[in-house]
Q: What sequence folds into this?
């Protein structure tokens, strides 16, 4: 999950002078923010500071963030012509500043701290592109999916190619692992996930895997169709807190590692309850083929940095 | 699910002259809106027009709806004293206008159309009371739950008593079935549902069941803990589209009926895709002990009334 954020004083200080997009656009600053949690929290890996929607700028969709609100897409996708008009991106040229941030962060990180690159999954990116921002019901997204499946498949195919190549480029720039974020895919029925999303996620993951870097395939609300989600690919499956982590292993098999799955809200709990939940996850994961302890989604802005540190220490200490 | 709404021209016409709260507060209008979908759609049952948050007015929490936005709670619950201050409601006195709407709607409905009364479940009501409105992350709700479990349990216990007695009062006023809506409970981990919510839902359902009316226990996002959700009670379990309905029966057993479970977005699909999804649900439910065909959540405002009618006719026609 994104490690840096509003809950960190050093991040808030930078944000007083720079917008989110400024931070992302300036490789030196993005690399600096990438390193903040490593120093502050003592985590085992760093995740690149970026935003999954950055490719929308070179795609011509328009991207902005209003203070305290979610992203706004100026030119959302409505019809076939909007998809056909999307340029094919060259990550080196169109998102070169992200790759430069990867290089700078990699160079600045201690050798034993791997750097994780990431991108949004085809469905989650398409949902923002179609809705024009965040959504609770994903009405426009599903309407396009049902009413114009050819347009839908073209859009998700374009997104799959884009993020597959973008992730591979991040690996070439120095990212040692890659994460694909399908944050909103849990709004779908299992059947719709299989029909309208899975083939595109599979393509994106295969393109990224060609880089040789290990891949984390993350989603929230995936418990109802976890087997299908896992079948799309990923060396590591990232799950949220809505499924006990041992049940997740039972369903996807022990050939895969799992990342997860503390409820971010547990970091707002008193230490005994928080630590109980952490220990429960560690115990359920014991003896499994690979566990990356993580939150089930991003750190909430209300979180105390000391609580995050305490969890890292507890996981390290056993 | 709520049947009346912005997607119906006759409802929009009434809303030009009356706020949502005006409609709810005026038994004649609430009864009139309750009957609209029966006439227009040809459904087999009517669901009372009301709002799950109406009890917040006599509780002193303050309730308003801004145009195009969700509910706003003027005096949210923050601490123990806020819960202790909540009055114990007498449904006949404090929500008498809802019971009068039940009586009027029951008298006006054809004899073969049952009337369904409803209330919000303790968790969902508490989440609105604590957040002060809608939420995506339920941060304040979970913070109270973890940091002050005694306050939490007192709050949910009060809500359970309130809605249990309120539902029973609706049955006495003429509602022939009762529905408990736990719309947002899917934000919880299975373990947290069991610890912090299940006992209170069980109490609310038991109080309502004492009326003798059959009870529908509905939630969204409950697939990860459906067995626990069902164990709280309900003659009928309402599920959303995130689980195949035959899988739901496999998990809760054939002693219970199930209500569901079409994705409301399927009503925005072209007829062949929409009908395919309807037929799939009907086929999966065939031979089961009891199926109430319904959407997995409310009708989306963008829905064409003709699409809803077509689904009702398809289900009736087999």
A:
């Amino acid at each position: 999950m994104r490690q840096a954020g509003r809950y960190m004083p050093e991040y808030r200080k930078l944000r007083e002078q720079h917008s989110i997009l400024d931070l992302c656009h300036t490789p030196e600053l993005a690399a600096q923010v990438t390193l903040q949690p490593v120093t502050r929290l003592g985590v085992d890996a760093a995740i690149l500071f970026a935003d999954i929607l950055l490719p929308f700028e070179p795609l011509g969709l328009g991207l902005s963030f209003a203070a305290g609100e979610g992203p706004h897409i100026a030119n959302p996708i409505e019809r076939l012509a909007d998809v056909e008009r999307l340029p094919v991106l060259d990550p080196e040229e169109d998102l070169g500043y992200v790759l430069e941030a990867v290089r700078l962060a990699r160079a600045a990180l201690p050798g034993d701290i791997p750097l994780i690159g990431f991108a949004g999954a085809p469905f989650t990116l398409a949902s923002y592109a179609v809705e024009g921002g965040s959504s609770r019901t994903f009405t426009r997204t599903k309407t396009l999916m049902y009413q114009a499946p050819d347009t839908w498949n073209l859009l998700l195919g374009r997104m799959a190619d884009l993020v597959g190549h973008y992730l591979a480029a991040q690996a070439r720039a120095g990212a040692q692992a890659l994460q694909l974020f399908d944050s909103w895919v849990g709004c779908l029925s299992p059947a719709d996930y299989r029909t309208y999303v899975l083939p595109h996620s599979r393509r994106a993951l295969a393109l990224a895997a060609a880089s040789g870097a290990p891949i984390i395939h993350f989603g929230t609300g995936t418990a109802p169709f976890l087997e299908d989600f896992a079948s799309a690919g990923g060396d590591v499956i990232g799950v949220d807190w809505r499924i006990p982590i041992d049940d997740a292993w039972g369903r996807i098999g022990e050939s895969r590692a799992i990342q997860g799955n503390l409820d971010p809200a547990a970091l707002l709990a008193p230490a005994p309850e928080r630590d109980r939940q952490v220990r429960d996850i560690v115990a359920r994961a014991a003896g499994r083929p690979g566990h990356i302890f993580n939150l089930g989604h991003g750190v909430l802005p209300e979180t105390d940095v000391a609580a995050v540190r305490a969890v890292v220490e507890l996981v390290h200490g056993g």
Notes: The beta strands of chain B are 46-47, 63-65, 71-73, 115-120, 177-182, 215-219, 236-238, 257-262, 291-295. Residues 9-317 of chain B form a domain with the TIM Barrel fold (CATH 3.20.20.210). Chain B has one domain: 9-317.
